[in-house]
Amino acid sequence: MKPLLIGGKAYASRLLVGTGKYRDFEQTRQAIVASGAEIVTVAIRRTNIGQDPNQPSLLDALPPSEFTYLPNTAGCYTADDAIRTLRLARELLDGHDLVKLEVLGDPQSLYPNVVETLKAAEILVRDGFKVMVYTSDDPIIAKQLEDIGCVAVMPLASLIGSGMGILNPWNLQIIIDRLNVPVIVDAGVGTASDAAIAMELGCDAVLMNTAIAGARDPVRMASAMKMAVEAGREAYLAGRMPKKIYQATPSSPTSGLIGS
Fold first, then answer.
1. How many CB atoms lie within 10 A of CB 123?
2. Is the pLDDT reported for residue 124 higher than 90?
3. Residues 6 or more apart in contact with residue 170 via CB below 8 angstroms
4. Which of 66, 94, 142, 196 could form a disulfide with 232 if both were Cys (CB 3.0 to 4.6 A apart)?
5. Based on C-alpha coordinates, what's the Rg of the chain?
6. Rounded CA separation 173/203 (Å)
7. Integer Cα distance of 17 and 237 in angstroms
8. pLDDT tens digit string along 69-122?
9. pLDDT, greater one: 58 or 118
10. How would residue 260 be classed by pLDDT, with cut points 50, 70 and 90?
11. CA dihedral of 3, 202, 70, 106, whole degrees rounded to 10
């Protein structure tokens, strides 16, 4: 299977996993390892990666030598806040330039503010960041983000943390067909079948956090998500049989029947 290419680097896993909402850093590590993820997201405003030397650091549980960190701007509602947060992340992670941009519209829906997102993306790309960007499932906005220079576009499947799955596969399909950079479903995945469907549509990868961390058994769910992403990708590459409405086709040969 071809690797996932993001920002000039190849990754074997097409599952990206968040590091928030787990019981503790030990459970975080167990789930991430079970998922097989190589890229892990970290909310700079909420997770200690060195900001507080007196508290446990995620860097100890998930060493950067083992995982690619993807600092994100969770909790930012303006372009300025997001830019400031990612510049801080670059300092904390010794010049790390691969980042996830998200600028939210309101604290209730956590829907992306695409106007502020576009503004922040332009500045961050110009500032030398490799920007992976959370956005709505609007194909026009997705194309504009690619044109700005984002290295991956990450449309939502449904609202962050909702677990509602893919609500608009048609928009996702348009985005997949039109963009040349990786398209990664971000937000809304609730269970393994959601991840498989995203990959069967042709998405390059899936990013999730709550679907694993919020499960009754996060480690087992992480393993299930790993298999679902792999199965969905294999099914996409294999090419499904065409759907035949109101037409049945025997699944076994019709010639050479016994007694004929």
1. 16
2. yes
3. none
4. 196
5. 20
6. 8
7. 23
8. 999 998 999 999 999 999 988 988 888 899 999 999 999 999 999 999 999 999
9. 118
10. low
11. 180
What is the torsion angle, in degrees rounded to the nearest 10, for the CA atoms of residue 124, residue 108, residue 41 and residue 71?
Answer: 30
Poorest-pLDDT segment among 44-58, 111-125, 165-179? 44-58
For the entire predicted model, the pTM comes to 0.89
HEC secondary structure over 45-87: CCCCCCCCCCCCCHHHHCCCCCCEEEEECCCCCCHHHHHHHHH
Residues taking part in catalysis: 100
Query: Which pair of structure tokens corresponds to residue 209?
Result: 């956090």
Whether the CA torsion 138, 39, 81, 96 is positive or negative: it is negative
What is the amino acid identity at position 50? G
Tokens 């990666």, residue located: 49
How far from 208 is each of 40, 102, 136, 184, 222, CA to CA, in Å? 10, 14, 16, 10, 10
